[in-house]
Amino acid sequence: MSSYWSQYWQQGHMTSFGNDFSDNYTGALKSLWEEVFKAVAHNNKVLDIGTGNGSIIALGIQINPNLYFTGLDSAKLSLPEIFQNLDKVDFIEEASAEDMPLQDQSYDCVVSQFGIEYSSLPKSLSEVSRVIKPAGQFHFVVHECDSTIVKPNIHILNAGKALLNSEVIDSLRKLFNGLAKYGQQSAITDQLRQKLNSDIASIAAKHASGLQGTNFPVFLKHVMNPNFELKQRKSDLKIFLNELDGQIVRLSDLVEAAMNETKHLQLTTLLKEYGLDLLNDEHIFENGKMIGRYISGTKAN
Q1: How many CA atoms lie within 13 A of 245 on its CB side?
Q2: pTM for the structure as a whole
Q3: Measured between alpha carbons, how far is 190 from 208 in angstroms, rounded to an integer?
């Protein structure tokens, strides 16, 4: 998992939603973290699990610059310039939530947005309990399987898998070769083009909205530029397929991580088992649509 996420963060994304939140989170999510960080006492130490390129920490230092932040992630990151020369911010890359290289009872507050649920909860919540101080706080925003974030991505995931399991890519390669050998106007090239269009139509009939999310339509328009040579088309196809593989892995992780009734029960049971008292357990809404779940509480004294 971490290698594909490393590739993703190395592209410079600030959040796990690419261009949807290109600068940082806004709306209900930003408002939630504003309330959280305003309430944390000055000079407290905050740990962000699954930090990515530090989106939540970036919000935190704007809201309450008197806090000390540590961001932890299992991936190799590409941190933005805003974190350079900040003596109150530290990042630990390629370290798992299940085995955190941190001292016992060393943090006043542990936070995570769309991160903790990707881990093995029995191990990661045990670690949260270990590193958090008595009476310390935890605040988690987690994915919900019925949210407006997860549902569309399920369609994209299914479309991506269908695309790779179809004849589309093979037909596209054959068309590339036909264009190089016979040119744009030959009857053979036209037959190859019709075959590709038929294969794409079969996928689109079942996965229209999801197919857009894979970026295949945009890629197809790009790669069919009449000025492109065979070498260029093959190179661009290789890049697209690598990105699609990564997208499928990331979205598979997302779907598996998202909370359902069983996983939610597991989480709340584990919190109690590890001495983490649950104070808030509620859905988060944006424009009347559910986008996730907010879980927070304190560690028992």
Answers
A1: 10
A2: 0.85
A3: 24
How many other C-beta atoms can be found within 10 angstroms of the C-beta atom of residue 231? Answer: 10
Take residue 236 and report the two structure tokens written for it: 């661009």
Extract the tokens encoding 298.
């304190």
> 101-156 pLDDT, tens per residue?
999 999 999 999 999 999 999 999 999 999 999 999 999 999 999 999 999 999 99
Mean of all residue pLDDT scores within the chain: 91
Q: What are phi and psi of 18, to 5 degrees?
A: 55, -125
Report pLDDT digits (tens) over 132-141: 999 999 999 9
- Give the span between the Cα atoms of 295 and 280, in whole angstroms: 5
Fold of 2-147+258-299: Rossmann fold (3.40.50)
DSSP 259: B
Q: What is the pLDDT of residue 223?
A: 96
Count of residues making up the chain = 301
Cα dist from 113 to 108, 165, 205, whole Å: 17, 33, 35
Instruction: Locate 211 and state its tokens.
Output: 């197919």
Write down the residue that tokens 């350079």 correspond to: 84
Burial environment of residue 154 by CB neighbours within 10 A (0 to 12, 13 to 18, 19 or more): middle
Q: Please count the CA atoms within 13 angstroms of the CA of 10 that sit on its side-chain side.
A: 10
Helical segments of 84-186, H only: 121-131, 150-165, 168-182
Cα separation, 151 vs 223, whole angstroms: 29
- What are the extents of the domains in the chain? 2-147+258-299, 150-254
Q: Which of 118, 145, 112 is CA-nearest to residue 276? A: 112
